[in-house]
Every structure is written in C-alpha cells, then in structure tokens.
Specification:
With about 70 residues, this protein is an alpha+beta fold. The chain has two helices and two strands. A hairpin with an 8-residue loop joins strand 1 and strand 2 (about 30-35). The longest helix is centred in the last third of the chain and has 29 residues, at about 40-70. The N and C termini lie far apart (about 45 Å).
C-alpha cells in the first residue's frame, strides 16, 4: 500500500541510503522518479539489524530492572 511505501522511502532517504532523480516523459504528464541505492543492500540490512538489536537489548534491560524491584 502507498502509505507504507512512503514511510519506507522517507526512512531510507533520511538515512542517506537512496536518492532519486526525475526523468521527463516524452508525453504530457508528471515526470518519472528514478530511485537508486547509494549504499549496498548488505550494509543497509546490517545497519537495520544492529539498530533493532540495540532496541531489543534496551527493552530487555528495562524488563530486568523492573523484575529486580519485584
């Protein structure tokens, strides 16, 4: 669906992992956006994995702290 795609594209753009350029069509209408990766897919996936692992570790640490109070 379009909203999910827009969110994902903004995330990737914000990280500097993708860029786009516009190509003018020979007919009337809107220009076409051509998206390209600026970073290899493996590096993107490794970075996302590390971010998610950090989030998970942080949450697990909070759970451990809460359990220590019980």
């Amino acid at each position: 669906r379009q909203p999910e795609v827009s969110v994902a594209v903004k995330y990737l753009e914000g990280k500097g992992w993708i860029e786009n350029r516009e190509s003018v069509t020979p007919t009337k209408g809107r220009p076409i956006k051509i998206w390209t990766l600026k970073v290899p897919v493996k590096k993107i996936l490794d970075t996302i994995r590390m971010e998610k692992e950090d989030e998970l570790n942080s949450r697990l640490e909070m759970i451990r702290k809460v359990r220590s109070f019980a």
